[in-house]
Amino acid sequence: MRPRASRRPRPGSRGVSAPAPVAVVGAGPAGLAAARALAARALAGRGVAFEVLERHDDVGGIWDLSNPGTPMYASAHFISSKGVSGFSGFPMPDAYPDYPDRRLILAYLRAFADRYDLRRHVRFGTEVVRAEQAAGGKWTVTAGDGSERRYSALVCANGVTWTPNIPDLPGTFAGEVSHANTYRSTDEFRGRRVLVVGGGNSGVEIACDAARAAEKAFISLRRGYRFVPKHVFSVPTSELFGEDGRPVAWPDWAGELASMDALLDGLVGDLTRLGLQAPDHDAFASHPIMNTRVLDHVAHGDLTPKGDVAGLDGEEIVFAGGSRETVGLVILATGYRHDAPFLRAPRLVMNGGRPALHLNIFPPGVHDLYFIGFVEFAAGAYPHFDRMARLVAEVLASGAGGRDAVRSLHVGYRPDTSGGRSFVSSDRRANYVDAHAYAHAIEGAIERVRTGVPSSSNREAA
């Protein structure tokens, strides 16, 4: 039986109270990775004091359906397999299926918090509404109850799927429009004509829900996508290929298909036969859509693919090319803004609506501010959150508030995190990296900060 979440008292009065050196905002996956890394440094006698600020009453972030504002829905599953998705040193249980559902992921995150005794570092029920840096560098954090606390550094681990990106669709619509972040279950679709706009993994999963439950279901896609099966040769696809895109568990007889592009061309085939656009990029140039159920729904006639939305006209949606469909509900699966809405940092530079960050962690020109989880790649997220957290913890433990270490990384460590790939040009790819190259770069940065000696990656980058 999991112990009840402990509650640390909320700040009880207005005005600045006793300082805590480092604040981590959020007790979801990225915040828990940060807490473990910082706690490990403290146990080794070379860390800094810290606390995690979490507005909800327990850990788990978006995976907890009771967490206000979560974009999670009842049918959600992990899109990367359990074998490549767990935190370092804490794999997902063998009893888990290859692709766990939201309830199992939440249980895993809470077991992780229990294993490393992380709840004792969390100030639950503390919503951060404002974080502002004073002239001396300290951060003043204002909670929802109006109380303030001061910190020497701020780690934004609040997650990147809280603030919906809402496109401006021309025209007027007589039906209902909502963002995917409010969708919860297929009950919302029954007896309705539904359009899902967007081809990300959540959009495609929600479109599959609509195909099963709606009177009529459509999906609007602006371009062609690579649809990747979750299993190939009975092996989870993410375990068949390494993070560098090369096959690692490949039968000899399939040698001529030994690339993701060749594999998808062979298994998925010509998508234009189904009324979908052909992809114009290779498999690792954009975020993979780990879903081929959607192709079955299209092939069965339960889901109709459409092009980009050109406009709204009463009860109808007008699509590129001039076709029209009558719908009653539009779900905008159009992604999220990577932001920290509480942050007041005028010098923070934005790139494609996302913070411009060196190594996707360090904002140029802003001291004592770190981001964990503000990155995208075609791989399991938690091992990378681990690396990012270890680097931040190493920097904070390096002395001088970590500023010298960060300056060294900004000036002398500029590894190529693209892996030599050209990614699809879009705002979403502003913080996109090749997973293998990024892991190598972060490990090299950790070595550089820990030893003060340039790593092999840095020498190559230099």
UniProtKB/TrEMBL annotation:
Organism domain of life: Bacteria
Region of interest: Disordered: 1-20
Entry EC number(s): 1.14.13.148
Pfam family, one: FMO-like
A GO MF term: N,N-dimethylaniline monooxygenase activity
Skewed-composition ranges (Basic residues): 1-11
Gene3D superfamilies noted in UniProt: FAD/NAD(P)-binding domain (3.50.50.60)
Key words of the record: FAD, Flavoprotein, NADP, Oxidoreductase
InterPro entries: FAD/NAD-bd_sf, Flavin_mOase, Flavin_mOase-like, FMO-like
Record-stated family: Belongs to the FMO family.
Protein name from the UniProt record: Trimethylamine monooxygenase
Organism: Sphingomonas lenta
Lineage summary: Bacteria, Pseudomonadati, Pseudomonadota, Alphaproteobacteria, Sphingomonadales
